[in-house]
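Chain A, query sequence.
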Amino acid sequence: MNNNMTNKKTTAKTRQELEQAIADADAIAKQKSNFLATMSHEIRTPMQTIYGLLELIALEKPSENVSSMVSTAQGAASNLLEILDDVLDVAKMDSDAMELDKFEVPVRLLVRGMLEALSVKVRGVHVNLIDDIETDVPFVVLGDPKRLRQILINLCGNALKFTHDGSVTVRVNTKIERIKKPKYGLGLRFEVIDTGIGMSAEVCAKLFQSFTQADNSTSRKYGGTGLGLSIAKKLVKLMGGKIGVNSTEGKGSTFWFEIPTEEISTDQSTVELPDLEGISVLSVEDHPQGAKEILSSLRSMGAKVESCATYKEGLKLAKKQPFDVAVIDQGLPDGLGLNLIREIQDLRPFMGIVMYTVRDDIGLSHSLHSLGATYLTKPASRIGLGEAVKNAARQNVAIIEGPTRLLIAEDTDSVRDILGRQLKSLGVDADFAKDGKEALEAFKSGRYGILFTDLHMPEIDGYELTNTIREKEEETDKHTPIIVLTADVQMSQRETYTRHGFDECLLKPVSLGQLRGLLVRWRLLDENSLKIDDSEKSDAKKDADKTPSINRECLIKNIGAINESTVEMMEMFVDMTAPTISGIIEALKDKDHGKLSELGHSLKGGARSACCDALGDLASKLQDDAAESRKCDEIVADIIDEFAQVKIDVEKLRSEI
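Chain A, predicted structure.
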């Protein structure tokens, strides 16, 4: 009996230890995923700035030598951003945060488009890219086209890395060997076959693990993180499939994976397609089959589509007609789609833009994001293309019904002043509230049809203000457009601001062009109203070295010109900011880090809106350092010096005017 009791105690103890070990392992995995996600995000933020600056340098048409260095740096930045994306994917999958979509997947277009995108990597190399898709493979199946493409890109990219001569073939058939055929569907087997260096059985056993390559010598010789195959394995598992490799040293490799799916008829859709009725679209696509599919897909959803095949024709059509959306390929026979987009945006600043291309390039994606364009990789499902066009079209933004007066909730005096001047120049009526509580009371009057709100305000912040309005709207059919005003770049991502109940995001400092574009989209302005005067830009460039504390180009962009009104605004900014500087000095003496961070945030928004970039950057650093209770003596001293310089330069502006 004693033995039985002892065994039970031992068993219970063992179970407890096992449960604790599992809990510890889960905690470590979660901690690792959080660390990877955080580090990836923190590195990505400055990298995006670096890439953006490189892009701006390239636009200045530098010398051939400088242009070559910029191109090399852009390539390196793109590679690093790709690695960061891989790290984020690993973190998401490890924490079970990744979900797959279920859309139409046009198998042949997917494979051929992917091989077309990879063709740039084999230029100058004796490697043929071949697709081998058997006739019994359905034209369209159900799945996640983005993730399926990612798997194939990773496997083919790996094959190309180790193949210097011969071929890389993507074979697709229905002859599954490792998974069971679904009850109401079919299985697809994908094989990526290369004629490269091959691997031994021992090396094959090590693959598909994060940060692992064949061996150290392989990693040194061929580069890479080893994340691609790991991500491919995790994605295939998420799809309910299996993945593996067969290889012989010196005779090449075959990476394969099998997934369950089901066929979709080409005349049916698994989801309700977007309504594009009344939306006019310009399609610039040189591939005949691709152009035909864009045309038929968008027309089937109600869009009016004009199609052409060249950069020159696309620009001519854009000059002739103000389309709602342009769908543009990157690789055109007479130029790059990105350059066409820039020309069209100068010509038609309110035309929605979708870049629809086989190129899967993180650098190109960033460039398009900075232009406010949508980046869509081929082939997308019909719903994917339709949603991209719908979201890009200004017609899809609801016309405000009822009052159209604008209410702005902003707690920084200088920001309110600048916005007021901008709106006055646009001829738009607006009222201001100094905090969320005041804004909520004003909003209850029913006078306002649209709201701009800062995020960080006393009494009630922008989040709570928006949430309160949205909760009250649930009882009615009304939806008030709410635009968030913020300096937080992360908030500018659509999935972020819509999650918090906002309809759009305006990043500080808000340019006159941005403000005008937003008001046009919401029908508060006519598209042809107010053209910004750029005549003083050259003078601003000449004086840039003389006035380093004030960005004159920014002033012209935000206000329209440097004149008496502009100088008055800058003088008002100095007067309004002086108490903030005094408050910062007092908070430093009192070692009140909370107050320092709060005042740093307030100064940051005001300074950047007044185009005092250096002062704004210093204020941002103060906000962050104080929030972490770091020593702030030096940064406060720098702020005092910079503010003194701003005052001197404002006086210079006055004397010039």
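Residues 214-223, 529-547 have pLDDT under 50 and may be disordered. The first strand starts at residue 103 and ends at 106.
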